[in-house]
Amino acid sequence: MSDRMKNQAAKNRDAAKVLRNRGKDDAAKQMEDRADELESGRVTDCTDAVSGLISWALRR
Question: Where is this region: Disordered (predicted)?
C-alpha cells in the first residue's frame, strides 16, 4: 500500500469522525468503509501510471 493511500485512509477516518459528530452516521460509515478498503490493499494506486500517460500525451 502506498503512502498516498495510507494518507487518504487517514483523511477518510478524520472526515468520518466529523460526520459522526454532526449526526450523519450513514455517511460516516461509508467513509470508514472506504478507509478500510484503501488499507486492505484491494484498491490499486494508479496515480503514477495516469500521470505518466498524461505527460506522454501532452508531449506529442
Answer: 1-42
Give the count of domains, the chain: 1
Query: Residue 44, CB half-sphere, CA atoms under 13 Å: how many?
Result: 4
On the CB side of 60, CA atoms within 13 Å amount to 5
Q: Are the beta carbons of 38 and 5 closer than 8 angstroms? A: yes
In residues, how long is the chain? Answer: 60
Full domain range(s) for residue 39 = 3-59
The whole model's pTM is what?
Answer: 0.75
CA 49 – CA 54 distance, rounded (Å): 9
